[in-house]
Structure to design on (622 residues):
């Protein structure tokens, strides 16, 4: 078999196995529930009968393996179970976790892809420029600014942006509330500030790694050769260094996109954006376990998928693997 | 540092050659530190000072309601009051103690756990290494914040739970680093010699391996502290971390965020305090890494 195809298939298998184990862990965490949990969800006034019924409903009386099989077989069919919010209420209206997650996941993906579309080209450009003019004033400035952006909490950047771009100079809006029937351009306008916050955070990281990956290569003999034959600095970087730097750069891009998945949680809360991150935070504070588990599985799957993608792209973009001798 | 490197700048003070202890050697290295590293060290020292002397420095108690809600800057309250009428400046000062202290404890715990397991895996190898490494691989395949959220929703938010959860999740990174750097040391002859003369595992760990992997571990401690600090702040900001009435920077931002829309910078102060400390720490670690890697080559 083709060695590239073989490695890619191996990684795919590993990814699926990881996802499987992760789903077991997420499901097993329920085993660690403290005894007073039913009271915490149903309220202090819950009668013993309600508590018993609730514990039966969430399956605490069943064997963990049975419960896991039930849950996972539902998940693969797109059924994440029911929210506890409906279990506690007497009205009896049932809220399916899948219905809660679905539209919000789309919103989050919209926000994350808008951030990624801006951040990836920008960080490549800045990284190449910083490598080209390394140790110049520009390089140092970019270095300090990016280090500051990396070290700041997301909500700090977010509130600074709100302060300047929504309050002092009201260019954008500070509440990113979007509704289903909203025109595309309006949506883009509303999510401008959250997108900008995410861009700031991930550009810093990606740009630094791009710069480091290129500078790492600049010491190699073949770069020296091209320099001696009289190639211009920009040409050396774009034609000779960058193709070989792709693997680490793509890896970092994928890792940062995976990081976006986590970064959105805080940003969504700051801008009250109706995404899956906010749903999860709400569910955690209400201790609505099925929703938390569903969200966690979606997040973990996205994260694993992006890391898998990074691996595959790294393998495929490696010339030494593509042209075996 | 070699001996020849020290004689160079020592010419200005010949009397110091007689007694050159740890302090003067440390000072020699410090003097050559870049301004960013100096800035970082001064900021960290200031934070430590504030944290230790918080009760002396703060004009009001941490949790007492001393005025009306959201009072403006100036007058009796230098930075105004928060959403319940507690003095903002005092809570900022106590926050240095609580937020930084909790993050520090968590990092320490994660290091004890992670490096002990990492070294054990590197020394014993075999199935222990396999089991630990695979377990860490799986734990690391879930984003840390998400995993922490799941665990918090089950165990409930309290400071003890928070410290334990973050420490365990974060120790995976420490495990990976200490295992990989220790693997390089474990194959050395002097470790083999110690093993052959019958030294026990803890002795080998402490006396033969730990001193040789200290530099990367110290740098990692700084970086992990930043990461843990940011994670806990983010959780507190989300309302799931350190709970009121404890003064904590993350939750202070959350509680006073409404002021932003009126153009008031007060909520930015605790957020800025978090950012400043992590930036300072990063500067110092950057310099330290540069320094230690330069010496080894």
């Amino acid at each position: 078999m083709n060695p590239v195809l073989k490695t890619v298939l191996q990684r795919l298998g590993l990814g699926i196995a990881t996802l499987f184990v992760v789903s077991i862990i997420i499901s097993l965490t329920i085993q660690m529930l403290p005894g007073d949990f039913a009271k915490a969800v149903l309220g202090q006034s819950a009668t013993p009968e309600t508590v018993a019924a609730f514990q039966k409903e969430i399956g605490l009386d069943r064997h963990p393996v049975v419960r896991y099989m039930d849950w996972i077989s539902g998940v693969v069919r797109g059924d994440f179970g029911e929210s506890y919010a409906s279990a506690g209420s007497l009205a009896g209206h049932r809220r399916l976790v899948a219905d809660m997650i679905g539209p919000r996941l789309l919103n989050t993906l919209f926000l994350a892809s808008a951030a990624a579309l801006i951040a990836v080209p920008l960080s490549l450009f800045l990284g190449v420029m910083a490598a080209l003019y390394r140790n110049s004033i520009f390089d140092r400035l970019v270095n300090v600014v990016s280090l500051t952006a990396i070290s700041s909490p997301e909500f700090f950047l977010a509130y600074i942006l709100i302060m300047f771009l929504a309050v002092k100079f009201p260019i954008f809006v500070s509440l990113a509330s979007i509704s289903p029937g909203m025109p595309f351009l309006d949506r883009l306008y509303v999510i401008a500030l959250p997108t900008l916050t995410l861009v700031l955070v991930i550009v810093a990281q990606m740009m630094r790694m791009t710069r480091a990956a290129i500078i790492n290569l600049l010491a190699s003999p073949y770069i020296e050769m091209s320099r001696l034959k009289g190639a211009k600095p920009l040409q050396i970087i774009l034609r000779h260094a960058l193709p070989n730097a792709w693997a680490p750069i793509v890896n970092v891009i994928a890792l940062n996109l995976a990081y976006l998945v986590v970064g959105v949680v805080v940003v969504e809360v700051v801008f009250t954006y109706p995404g899956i991150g906010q749903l999860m935070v709400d569910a955690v504070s209400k201790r609505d376990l099925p929703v938390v588990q569903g969200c966690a599985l979606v997040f973990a799957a996205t994260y694993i998928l992006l890391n898998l993608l990074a691996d595959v792209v790294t393998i495929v973009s490696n010339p030494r693997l593509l042209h075996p001798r | 540092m070699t001996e020849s490197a020290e004689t160079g700048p020592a010419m200005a003070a010949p009397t110091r050659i007689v007694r050159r202890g740890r302090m003067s050697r440390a000072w020699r290295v410090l003097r050559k530190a870049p301004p960013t590293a100096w800035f970082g060290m001064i900021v960290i020292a200031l934070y430590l000072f504030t944290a230790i002397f918080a009760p002396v420095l703060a004009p009001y108690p941490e949790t007492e309601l001393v005025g009306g809600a959201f009072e403006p800057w100036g007058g009796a309250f230098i930075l105004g009051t928060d959403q319940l009428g507690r003095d903002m400046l005092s809570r900022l000062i106590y926050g240095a103690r609580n937020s930084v202290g909790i993050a520090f404890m968590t990092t320490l715990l994660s290091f004890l756990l992670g490096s002990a397991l990492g070294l054990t895996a590197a020394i014993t190898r075999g199935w222990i290494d396999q089991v630990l490494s695979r377990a860490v691989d799986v734990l690391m395949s879930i984003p840390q914040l998400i995993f922490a959220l799941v665990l918090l929703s089950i165990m409930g938010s309290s400071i003890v739970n928070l410290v334990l959860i973050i420490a365990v999740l974060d120790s995976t990174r420490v495990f990976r680093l200490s295992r990989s750097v220790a693997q390089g040391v474990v194959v050395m002859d002097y470790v083999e010699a110690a093993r052959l003369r019958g030294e026990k595992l803890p002795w080998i760990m402490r006396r033969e391996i730990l001193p040789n992997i200290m530099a990367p571990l110290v740098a990692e401690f700084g970086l992990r502290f930043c990461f843990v600090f940011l994670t806990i702040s983010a959780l507190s900001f989300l309302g799931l971390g350190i709970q009121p009435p404890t003064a904590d920077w993350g939750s202070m931002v959350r509680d006073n965020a409404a002021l932003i829309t009126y153009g008031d910078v007060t909520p930015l102060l605790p957020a800025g305090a978090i950012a400043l400390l992590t930036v300072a720490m990063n500067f110092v670690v950057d310099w330290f890494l540069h320094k230690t890697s330069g010496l080894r080559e």
Remarks:
- The first helix of chain A runs from residue 3 to 28.
- Chain A has a mean pLDDT of 81.
